[in-house]
Design brief:
The chain is of the alpha+beta class. The protein is built from 15 helices and 28 strands. The protein is 26% helix and 39% strand. A 16-stranded antiparallel β-barrel has the order 9-10-11-12-13-14-15-16-17-19-20-21-22-26-27-28. The chain has a 5-stranded antiparallel beta sheet with strand order 1-7-6-3-4, covered by helices on one side.
């Protein structure tokens, strides 16, 4: 499961988690008010509009960082209107939401800055007022330090690091470096920067530590620093800003800093955390704007496609409002948006082969995922319509048959900190077979989500019978218990790997009550050639045709390895699965897909698979029956199941996926494969050609 999930993520290109739903609109609103009313000296009008903007941040619609920016703006307006009390109250609210909040440099006057600094100085958000130098008591320099004050500041930085007060740690470590440039102080600064997710700055400090440490003969620190710098550079996330269709007149910003157009299409390393890309342009007199905020995690590269559009209706309403009544109308427009993503879809697949087996499988499914609360549910319903007139049927003079199978399934998962716990259940019903199954899974995100171990346990209880015969008259009970341990690894920004180990224990008689096995005399069996046709088999076999009889216990083991690598416009996915069981079957399956993003919304992929296996230990081309004292003696274990014999199979094909809609919320997929199987030691057949096709339609809603 971890492999499938990991590969799917890579194939779709790594995506960052969405920010809170109103973040983009609130930032846009604040920017526009500063640029318009505030810059024109209309502080009262600016305050009214930014106050109305609070409706966009009701409940959890805004992140803490954006809420802080909104209240900093409110405080700034109050300060410019001369109301120091209300300004400080707004600044206090901002600092409670984000201790790193600060007024906009380009719009902050001395009055605004003084009030904000005064608020921050008395706020619990700044416990280290005065810094380490204010608490220095004139003690002598510690050993190895040329300044007692520097040693004191370094000790204070270490205390702050231990208390997880990384802003104070950074300030005190920098103070120590200003007084005495020691490699150990620089290493402390690097650790605190790294812990605060300032990876780019931390990597630079680690590199400088690695350069300086050998000069003080601290070679161990130099080696550790170089290792940390390398690891950070490797795991630092990046943004790739894809250019709009027309770049004329476009200006770019990344986190408020101007970005040259030459950076379009290139990887831009950034620190983990929240980042905002802004683009502005004009179409005639109509201002066009793009703004997207993403939350980047370690080892991810996020593509951001610029789509320049006018302001949202809510923001345009507030910006254009000239009266209180107009602002009231804007409040009614600002209805909360949902963090719930819902997908519904349907798929119809079909299979046919040269052995006259036909399968038609329509299905429907739906999923619901809550991005911020970390839970999801899913449900599916599948119908299999199978018809067959294969050589197995004809060999027993049975007519062509048709059977329908119904499979409902449900599941769900929820996150608890770094753990994701899921459960699932399904039912499979056929005229002569009933299966009930359930399972549970837990996965852990470790080392900043670069390592994901998982464990899954599944159980199923099956009842096998005969068509049109009550289970009370004839049935076999089959129990299966499966355990799968998995490990997902983020190997680089664009490479994901996984390994799963699976063990399944199966108890019960799985023999097919319709499958009869031909028997041959001892002197005839060695002469039976591979692929002997039905008429010849009937000519040489004995009259007795006992039913298939398989062992009633089976243990299966499999190891699967998979990897996916994302290139700039394509994804390569490969997997290898090794299998063996206590019946003597050994198998290898190798699968590869190369997904190519042709244009926006269109993805194509070729598919190739190879499978090879040995036969079960009890597999025989021609089973021998001999006369005994009490009559004919047949083998205790016997089968005619082709899939238990030695064979090789090659699959080739491909598919296409077309996404459409304003935000690619709809998608149509087509897939097709041709399967050639070569049976190496079987009666009736030597090979088989199979053809598979599938069509699906999906829709996603917020």
């Amino acid at each position: 499961m971890a492999a499938a999930l990991g590969c799917a993520l890579i194939a779709a290109a790594p995506r960052a988690r969405a920010a809170s739903p109103s973040d983009g609109d609130v930032r846009t609103l604040i920017d526009a008010i500063y640029a318009a009313e505030y810059s024109q000296g209309k502080f009262r009008e600016a305050l009214e509009k930014v106050e109305v903007g609070k409706i966009l941040c009701e409940g959890d619609l805004c992140s803490k960082k954006v809420r802080a920016q909104l209240f900093v703006a409110v405080g700034t307006m109050h300060a410019r209107l001369g109301d120091a009390g209300k300004a400080k109250a707004a600044f206090t609210t901002a600092l409670a939401a984000d201790a790193a909040a600060a007024p906009r440099t380009e719009y902050a006057t001395d009055e605004v800055t003084a009030l904000f600094d005064e608020t921050r100085g008395t706020s619990a958000a700044s416990p280290s007022t005065g810094g380490c130098r204010a608490t220095y008591a004139g003690k002598a320099a510690p050993r190895g330090w040329s300044s007692g004050e520097a040693g004191h500041c370094h000790a204070s930085a270490l205390e702050a690091e231990k208390a997880d007060e990384f802003a104070r740690c950074e300030a005190d470590a920098r103070a120590a470096l200003e007084l005495d440039d020691q490699p150990v102080a620089r290493a402390t600064l690097a650790r605190c920067l790294e812990a605060a997710n300032n990876w780019l700055e931390a990597a630079s400090e680690w590199e400088e530590t690695a350069r300086q440490a050998p000069q003080t003969r601290n070679f161990t620190l130099a080696k550790q620093a170089q290792y940390r710098a390398t690891q950070l550079r490797r795991r630092t996330p990046a943004i790739v800003i894809e250019p709009p269709k027309d770049t004329e007149g476009v200006t770019l910003e990344l986190d408020g800093a101007a970005l040259p157009l030459e950076m379009l299409g290139q990887e831009i390393p950034v620190n983990p955390g929240e980042h905002t890309v802004v683009a502005n342009s004009k179409r005639g007199d109509l201002p066009l704007r793009f703004k997207r905020t993403v939350l980047l995690e370690a080892s991810t590269t996020v593509p951001i496609a610029i789509e320049l559009t006018p302001f949202s209706p809510e923001v345009r309403c507030i910006l254009e409002a000239q009266t209180a009544d107009a602002l009231s109308k804007c409040m009614r427009l600002s209805s909360p948006t949902s963090n719930l993503d819902v997908r519904i879809g349907t798929e119809v697949s079909g299979y046919t082969d040269t052995m006259d087996v036909d399968v038609l499988t329509p299905s429907v499914f739906t999923t619901a995922e809550h991005a911020t609360d970390g839970w999801g549910v899913n449900a599916a319903f599948l119908v299999d319509v199978v018809t067959a007139a294969s050589v197995d049927i004809l060999a027993t003079a049975s007519p062509r048959w048709r059977e329908v199978r119904y499979v409902p399934a449900v599941g769900g998962h929820a996150r608890f900190g770094d753990a994701d716990v899921g459960v699932s259940g399904s039912l499979s019903h056929e005229p002569d077979y009933l299966s009930v199954s359930g399972g549970a899974r837990i996965a852990l995100d470790l080392l900043q989500k670069t390592v994901t171990p998982s464990l899954a346990v599944d159980y199923s209880h099956d009842t096998s019978g005969r068509s049109k015969t009550p289970y009370s008259v004839y049935s076999n009970e089959i129990d299966r218990v499966g355990v799968t341990a998995g490990l997902g690894l983020v190997l680089s920004k664009a490479t994901f790997g996984s390994m799963t180990v699976t063990a399944v224990i199966e108890d019960g008689d799985t023999s097919k009550p319709y499958r009869y096995v031909p028997m041959f005399a001892p002197e005839v069996a060695p002469l039976v050639p591979k692929g002997l046709e039905i008429d010849s088999v009937n000519l040489f076999r004995l009259a007795e045709r006992p039913l298939e009889q398989l062992p009633d216990h089976r243990e299966r083991f499999a190891v699967a390895l998979s990897a996916a690598h994302r290139f700039s416009g394509s994804t390569l996915r490969v997997s290898e699965r090794l299998y063996l069981d206590t019946w003597g079957v050994k198998a290898s399956s190798t699968d590869g897909r190369f997904l190519i993003d042709v244009v926006d919304g269109l993805r194509l992929w070729p598919h190739l698979r190879f499978h090879g296996q040995t036969g079960a230990s009890f597999w025989e081309l021609a089973y021998v029956a001999s006369e005994g004292p009490e009559g004919l003696v047949v083998p205790t274990v016997r089968t005619g199941d082709r899939e238990l014999g030695p064979l090789i199979a090659v699959t080739g094909g491909g598919g296409a996926r077309v996404a459409f809609g304003k935000h690619d919320e709809y998608a149509v997929s087509f897939a097709g494969d041709v399967v050639y199987s070569r049976f190496l030691n079987h009666l009736f057949v030597k090979d088989r050609w199979g053809y598979f096709g599938a069509f699906s339609l999906e829709a996603e809603f917020d």
